Amino acid sequence: MFSDLLPSAVGLLPKWQLLVSGLALFNAIQNYSTLSLTKRVYAKVAHQVTPLQARSNALWTFTSAVVRFYCAYNIHTKAVYDMTLATYCIAFAHFTSELFYFRSVEIGAPLLSPIFVSTTSIIWMIAQYGYYVEN
């Protein structure tokens, strides 16, 4: 019964997209409800984390969750696959720029989690592009 709700496409990548979408939804909700986890990510500038910034982050995170959820069930559609890949590239660019350019984050679990998810997803999606995308 539960398996009927999972993406029907073959392979683990569609299920990964569903999992990451669910995690992003949780993150978006927590950004609306508390600043504590966001302050852990931006630990070096925690005093700059405001409710407005957290809500903006929540909106981006919710948008990426929707795109990734849609991809989980429509992974063979080129435009959806490409947009989903772009969400991971944007996330990677954001967190690496915060680390190396803005220096607002420090290396640790709060940063390594989004770096791991974005990097893994980018590599996996590029490697599997020809398998999933309909030409």
For this entry, give a set of tags.
135 residues, mainly alpha, 71% helix, 0% strand
Strand/helix succession? HHHHHH
- Rounded radius of gyration (Å): 16 Å
Average pLDDT, rounded to a whole number, is 96
Uncertain segments of ≥5 residues (pLDDT<50)? none
Which range best describes the helical content: under 10%, 10-25%, 25-40%, 40-55%, 55-70% or over 70%?
A: over 70%
How many angstroms separate the termini? 33 Å
Structural class: mainly alpha
Count, helices? 6
Taken as a percent bin, the fraction of beta residues is under 5%
Tell me the overall shape: globular
Largest sheet: none
Q: How many beta-strand segments?
A: 0
Topology:
Layout lengths: L12 H21 L2 H6 L9 H23 L4 H23 L8 H19 L1 H4 L3
Give a quick precis of the structure:
The chain is mostly helical and 135 residues long. 71% of the residues lie in helices and 0% in strands.
Explain this structure.
With 135 residues, the chain is mainly alpha-helical. The chain has 6 helices and no strands. It has helices at residues 13-33, 36-41, 51-73, 78-100, 109-127, 129-132. The chain starts with 12 loop residues before the first helix and ends with a helix. The model has no long low-confidence stretch (mean pLDDT 96).
